[in-house]
Amino acid sequence: MILKDGKKQTGIERLEDAFAQCKSEGRRAVSPFITAGDPDSETTVATLKSIFAAGATCCELGVPYSDPIADGAVIQSSYTRALNAGMNLKKMFGIVSKLRETCEMPLLAMVSYSLIFRSGIEAFVKRGEASGLAGFVVPDLPLEESDDLDAHCRQSGLALVRLVSPTTPPERAREIARRSTGFLYCVSVAGVTGERTALPDGLIDRIKWLRQESDVPILVGFGISSADQAREVAAVADGVIVGSAVVRCLEQAKDAESMPNAAGSFVQELVKACQVC
Amino acid sequence: MPRVHAELVNHKLSAVPDKLGRFGRFGGRYVPETLSAALNQLETAYDAAIVDPAFVSELEGLFGAFVGRPTPLLFAKRLTEQAGGAQIYFKREDLSHTGAHKINNTLGQALLAMRMGKKRIIAETGAGQHGVATATACARFGLECIVYMGAEDVRRQSPNVRTMRLMGAEVRPVESGSRTLRDAINEAMRDWMATVETTHYIIGSVVGPHPFPRIVRDFQSIIGRETIECCESLFGRLPDTVVACVGGGSNAAGMFYPFVDYPDVRLVGVEAGGRSSDEGEHAAPLTYGTPGILHGSLSYVLQDRDGQTADVHSVSAGLDYPGVGPEHSYWRDSGRVDYTSVTDAAALDAFDMVAQQEGVLPALETSHALAWAVEAASEMSPEEILVVCMSGRGDKDAAEIARLRGQE
Fold first, then answer.
1. B102 is catalytic
2. CB B309 to CB A66 under 8 A?
3. Which of A207, B15, B73, B103 lies 20 to 30 Å from B175 when distance is taken between CA atoms?
4. What is the complex's ipTM, to 2 decimals?
5. What's the CATH number of domain B2-65+102-215, 3.10.450.50, 3.40.50.920, 2.40.37.20, 3.40.50.1100?
């Protein structure tokens, strides 16, 4: 977005604004996840718009990868469908640019480091910036390997959202929180992405502890699949990330044309559940 | 393993990996945060184990009485005569318990799992040899064992599937992706993400995130150490050329590692050339690939321009993998090891030749190394010594070879 004084906002600033607005409206953030290009680019763009209209604060755009080890069956199948339908990086960045023409919602690419490395870190970040991405979530890039990507993201003002897991020791969690930009992704369970019927024990306490350690918003994801779970988490976190449940909702829509509305209705429920005052 | 590793750390080429698991620029650890703690725990446990005399003597005891080590070095007399050049020797890993070198690693890692208090073991397998070796180690120690295996491999390596089940392991066929080794690794990693506090993942090759490539290499390096010892006592010198097949590269890494600091010994790794050099028709990342990240480490890999893993093909399930261990990439770029590839057809010819002329049924994987060896020996002098790592036996392949030849 171009501001009045002609200065271009960075991805991180766009996320900050989105979270600030959310807060001023007495809401916690809802960040849905959908796969780029499942079933096609047009449907993905339309679904993103519908998700934004439904009140999503930001959205993760899953970049299909052939070997996603952090993902469960739902997202894995979605990635396979997208790749079989011809999705590639060029088309993925095309979706981002297309959305930016008319929609202010910050988009984060959820992308394997395998794909970033292959393009070249600098080139990939530049393409992301040029297309209008707000940042990256890189689920297979731990702290120790992240210096290069971190430096390029900072230079471009793009967020590099980092993840903490239930198996992360406290000292390390602090360091991850300190270096995360945009927001901090708190993984609710040890395991892959996917819907779960109950929130894990100890999650609420863990979020409360992290809340004290982090200066950026904390969003909780992995396994959150219903409005009730979102409400419970929203009581202590700054927001929720809902992935597999949204993808499944799209999967169950009767055709591509009804997908945007289906996702919109579901996100609306989540947004309502995250209204805290 | 431990002792030799300590001896070699002052040398240059063998003084890898570093603290971050780097072999030169290769290796590292590209995994979800959930696995970081388990990999750190494994590294700590391993560092403590290899300086613990109790651990070392238990493993050496098992290598002797359970595996049948040391494995012999066999002079391949008729093959040597036919080639008409260098003297060809087989390092007989195929005589190991369970029929391949894989058992060296699974015993070591199973002992490590027990030191870490983990009683559930998962593994991936391609040809089934690592699955069998894991099931065997688990049976020996009373550990629960789950083996992920691509559905295509379950079909073409069915004798090994039966063996794993007889040993009490659960074999889970993997239907996703190409239904081969690469998908089995994905599925094992996913299992580990959810069970990491109670489960150890015994990876079967020198691949994956740090510290796996180092641990597997160290446990397998008994192969190269025994070869050095045996050559010194038989010939009073080291061999001129040592050759091994390379899929993920564990038998080759174990064979080559003790030799890398002896520059006069030529080392050759043979990849799966498949049907042709066209993309999707082979499984030879060191020959045709580019550096990329797969299964947690940076190494040569076969992938498209975007970074999507390419389809691969090999007649041999154990070599049918788009990646390779990071240390091989390091050896390739440093020029220390020569890598080449051999086609399906040449490997099948070598299989027949060795079966009929030496009375040894080699694994299809091993047959790739044998094909190159016979060819190379013919251009060497009779004074020269060429050692082939006979990584495994070919009983598991008999039915699949018959099927390929329409003799079912």
1. yes
2. yes
3. B103
4. 0.95
5. 3.40.50.1100
